[in-house]
Amino acid sequence: QVQLVESGGGLVQAGGSLRLSCAASRRILSFNDMGWYRQAPEAPGNQRELVATITSSGTTNYADSVKGRFTISRDNVKNTVYLQMNSLKPEDTAVYYCRGRIILTNYWGQGTQVTVSS
Description:
Blueprint: E1 4-7, E2 10-13, E3 18-24, E4 33-39, E5 49-55, E6 60-62, E7 70-75, E8 80-85, E9 94-102, E10 105-108, E11 112-117
Parallel strand pairs: 2-11
Antiparallel strand pairs: 1-3, 3-8, 4-5, 4-9, 5-6, 7-8, 9-10, 9-11
């Protein structure tokens, strides 16, 4: 069974930084791609928003709202994907989820809360 466990969330002041980690129960290179999504309580329909993704070949993709501030990376030895978040804004407040895709199946972590105070 595939498990993804997020950590690193917390409370930070605007302008601060946090690093989220997503530890996988199997080799992360076995995933076609992995990514971070977030869900804010005020989001329309409570939808999860894509934040950043990284493919097995290392190609990254970012939401326009986080470009230049967030960086997704991975450690293939530790089977962990990271999200470095800098210059945090109050609008970044959300529950952040890790997702891994193997062919047509998506696996999700339990989420970690990030709160940015103004």
